[in-house]
Amino acid sequence: MIADFLAERGLTLSEEKTHITHINNGFDFLGFNHRKYKGKLLIKPSKSNTLLFLSNLRELIKKHATIPVNDLIKLINPKLRGWANYYRHCVAKQVFGYVGHKLFYSLWHWAVRRHPTKSKTWVALKYFINRKGQWQFHGWQKVKDMDCQFNLFQIAKVPIERHVKIRSAAIPFDPQYQEYLARRKSKRQARNAWNEPALTAL
């Protein structure tokens, strides 16, 4: 039926890229997995994309075996933030925890290999800090005679933000919807760049 519909408009389906499956079995699209679980549709990060992301992080860590810890954190954090921001609107809390767990072990092996003659307790105290029962990878660096701490981005703590569809009748030129649209407008809490003026309270 779809092929006939497209044929009238001079279009054809690509057999290589077309996959027909039941919604209960699910399918991957743009890095997301769409599948119904007991009649409820859940959209999650696809397994293949998650494993590929972890593989890339492991390669990055393995490639920089002798790099200072602060520089390694600077390489990993943007990747973690970008990946988390892409998936933070879907059912990804469990996947975020899984990625954080696997990344912890990769960084632990990285730290242990750097100090083969030191005890694991010494390595843990040097590269990790205990925050409320969770060990966080971190480093120190002197900046203008001040000790600055660099912390690994905690992807497991990224909050899930559901997208709420806007009312179809709401338009910015109608006075009755101005309050509704003002509540939906997100407020920037920080600068986008270091050279922007600081935010001041009105």
TrEMBL record:
Protein's organism: Shewanella frigidimarina (strain NCIMB 400)
Similarity field: Belongs to the bacterial reverse transcriptase family.
Record lineage: Bacteria, Pseudomonadati, Pseudomonadota, Gammaproteobacteria, Alteromonadales
Domain Group II intron maturase-specific: start-end pairs: 53-128
Protein's recorded name: Group II intron, maturase-specific domain protein
